[in-house]
Amino acid sequence: DLNTQTLIPASNGRKVPALTIFTYALQYFKEHALRELSDQSGTRFVNEDVRWVITVPAIWKQAAKQFMREAAYQAGIASREFPDQLLIALEPEAASIYIRKLRMHQFVPDETPTYSRNSVRRDHGTLSSSLSNQSSPTIFDSDKCKYLKIREKKKQY
């Protein structure tokens, strides 16, 4: 069970608080997102300009959700004084809302991915990949709800 007391063993055997690791990860994502928003818009975005949404698995218990909120507070994403700046959302609901907002051309790829006998698919995960030699692989990332094209160097034997 994930909570504020959870320790994660490092590769050297030392145990590190999970809260510390999650805090650093969220801090990185926050800084990266703000930089991208600023770069793409030409306007400087600061943390207070954003309402942050962190998704968590639907099966998480309340202690784990509170853990994520605490990590976000420590990462500077939101604060106890302004808790409405952070929304902890369940992944299925967030995906459903996102999908409903998409236009058809955003959801359906320009070309249908081809699958051959070399295909690798994972139906319940976040990834379906075609390893066909006829085209570059297409990956469907259900977390982002869009297709990503990946160019792959063909192996020479």
Automatic annotation (TrEMBL):
Source organism, top-level taxon: Eukaryota
InterPro entries attached to this UniProt entry: ATPase_NBD
Region (Disordered) location: 113-137
Low complexity bias locations: 127-136
Protein name as it appears in the record: Heat shock 70 kDa protein 12A
Source organism: Rotaria magnacalcarata
